[in-house]
């Protein structure tokens, strides 16, 4: 089984940009769901990042099979865990306060819920689980995390989602202030994709 194309289960352009940069050296074309012309409802009813990623990847892989197409399908489920908020928003990060709510509002809500909370209790992490659904029915997952704290304001223009409120003490900047190259080296998605790449290389 030789992998000739990869479909990544997202329509998020910011995410696709990161993914293509990290997977570029595989030499395999990477398509978004939109580019692969897949538009099917997927109920993410898992209780972990891994379960939700697997639901997405296997559902799309089966859809492609129905069309007679074979591709490796990758899907990620990622989110922000804020320890002081009992690891909210967690697996509901994308749906937190409603899917159509802007991240400016979501970020402001998290900052206001942490009002008066000192740095040492503002610990948080980004988690990313990536599922791989191979055309032969095999599926695997990888996980990456990055630790930080929730800042007191939004900062930076380079990220998306919760990046502007995620402060990295080690780098003395917010996630959204990192260049795309720097972010891909240390981010939760970057780490999970690097682990993914090692698996994919076995099939190239």
Description:
The protein is α+β, with helices and mostly antiparallel strands and 204 residues long. It has one domain (6-203): Maf protein, CATH 3.90.950. It is built from 5 helices and 8 strands; from the N terminus they run βαβαββαββββαα. It has helices spanning 13-23, 49-66, 103-113, 180-186, 188-200; strands at residues 6-8, 30-32, 72-82, 88-89, 123-133, 139-150, 166-168, 173-174. Strands 1, 2, 3, 4, 5, 6, 7 and 8 form an 8-stranded mixed beta sheet that branches. A hairpin with a 5-residue loop joins strand 3 (72-82) and strand 4 (88-89). Helix 1 (13-23) crosses helix 5 (188-200) and helix 4 (180-186) crosses helix 5. The longest helix has 18 residues, at 49-66. It is globular. The protein starts with 5 loop residues before the first strand and ends with a helix. The model has no long low-confidence stretch (mean pLDDT 93).
Quick summary of this structure?
This protein is an alpha+beta fold and 204 residues long. The chain has 5 helices and 8 strands; from the N terminus they run βαβαββαββββαα. The chain has one domain (6-203): Alpha-Beta Complex (Maf protein), CATH 3.90.950.10.
